[in-house]
Design a protein that fits this description.
Blueprint (H helix, E strand, L loop, with lengths): L1 H22 L4 H41 L3 E8 L2 E9 L7 E2 L4 H14 L23 H5 L20 H9 L3 H10 L8 E2 L9 E3 L5 E3 L13 E3 L1 H12 L24 E5 L2 E10 L3 E8 L4 E7 L18 H11 L9 H5 L5 H10 L4 H11 L13 H12 L7 H15 L4 H13 L7 H11 L2
Antiparallel strand pairs: 1-2, 1-11, 3-7, 4-7, 5-6, 8-9, 9-10, 10-11
Length: 466
Amino acid sequence: MHHMNCMRAADSLRQDDRCLQASVSGGHVLRLMAILSLAMILHGCAHRSGTRAAQNFEATIEAQRAALKIPALSVAVVRDGKLVMAKGFGTATPETLYPIGSITKTFTSTLMVQLASEGRLNLDAPVAPLVDWEVDPRIRIRHVLSHTSGGEPGTRFAYSSRFNWLDNVVEAVTKESFAKLLQERVLDRAGLTRTIGGEVTGLATPHRLDENGNVAVSKLPPLDLHSSSGLSSTVLDLAKYSIALDEGRLGDLSAAWTPSAEGFPYGLGWFTQEIEGKRVVWHTSWWPDAFSGLIVKVPEERLALILLANTDGLTAPQRGASNVLLYPIAAAFLERELGRKLPVEVSDDDRLRLYDDAEAGRRLVAKFPEDHELRFNLAMVVGRVRPALRVNGEGAAEAVQLLETLVAETQPLPRWMQGWSSYLVAEHIAERDPARARQLAERAKATTIDTDGLQGRVAALLARLP
């Protein structure tokens, strides 16, 4: 009805304009007044239409928040280099601080692309000489940054915990602290004042859904800063980050936003796909039973959506899908901004990226039985954990069974995989089989691997075992 009224008003003014032209010789002033009146009415109609679209988008967000039982959800939208929306839903505000998990990977990518552009880091250099654990000599830094280091490096995409290696790589190459470089070259240059690495106070309280589907307070995840995760931020600061990227203040990210190979869904530290002829780049954050987040950018349009939540509900239901349109709020946002209904085609690949669909995961392990990292990653996600967490919750038994195959493996394994597999199984069986748990914990200790604070966790476990 509102749209019809606007159209009628516009038609009426057009008729008045034609009358003025016919009856008033040289009546330029009167004609200009008519045109200005028409413009004002159409601007008002467009403004009200834009307001209605914004209200519909907010209603979509609130409906998703309620359906997913998220207590606190913060949202920001950037358009043409300006913050056009910043809102909290539920108990959140735009200033609410959350751990941003794997969105940290985009910051690592930004830093490494900067260093590469200055000739300080060669993305095609081998990783093996830069770390103190066994690495396939064929693996290049680029392969780790693009999640293509498994199997024959560069030939297939498999989202991998190996991204954790990159802070070690940066420090080995630059002889400087990863945290210091990230602060000075990315956070400070972007003007970020609420983006913090490592332990921080004032975070949103994490929540999970219990066995009855009720919302319950849960534990904070580990907040150690490394290349895969460890930053905490607000949607306001992430909006500043997006604007800084678009303005080129953080370097040229075009290579990071280009698929690492034809048909792959990932560039360098960013998911990337083409939608309606537009390049869309994005990344999720998923802390099981704690937090989730999503940053979506259309660089050509200088457009961005940022979502942060205090449950894993924003990203857990999609189970690691590599199609941004499978995330409902992101799909609604892109449809609104691009002005059309977007087709969603779900391929098997979209469902397999993180190996956390149990059936898909089993097929992958069966297809690549020699690929121990696939088995390790599958165990992490079936158990709904990250490598730095205890194996617990739904799927724990299956996850431990997969890890047991690695613990019992007679062939040499990378030390990081030996360490983490041994520790996670030990943690899981500590109460019912403390003697074996101690044996496995000692084995984990002997690897000397300390990624994500492994040795501290092993020491704590050994201290409480009889």
